[in-house]
Amino acid sequence: MESNLTYESAYKELAEIAHEIETEAISVDVLAEKVKRASDLITFCQTKLRSTEEEVVNIIKQIDNHSVS
Amino acid sequence: MTAISVLKLSDLTRQIKLTIDGVFGSATFWIIADISNYTYKNETNHHYFDLIEKEKLSSRIVAKIAGRAWGTAAVHISNFEKTTGQKFKNDINVLVQVSVQYHPAFGIQLNLIDIDTNFTLGQFEQQRNATLAKLVAENPSFIRKSDGRYITRNSELSFKMAIQEIAVISSATSAGYQDFEHTLLNNSFKYSFKLDLYLAKVQGEENAKPFLEKLIEVFNAKKDYDAVVIIRGGGAQSDFLLFDNYELSRAIAKFPIPVITGIGHQKNETIVDLMAHTATKTPTKVAEFIIAHNRSFEDDLIRIQKTMIIKSQQLFAYYLRELNDLKTHFLKDVLRLLNDNHRNISILSGIIKNKPGMQLSNEHKNIDNLLGSLKAFNNIFIAHEKVNLQHYQSLVNLMSPQNILNKGFAILKLDGKIISNPESIMPGNELTIQLSTAEINTVVKSKKIL
Question: Which of A38, B141, B238, B322 has the fewest CB within 10 Å, making it most exposed?
Answer without folding.
Answer: B141
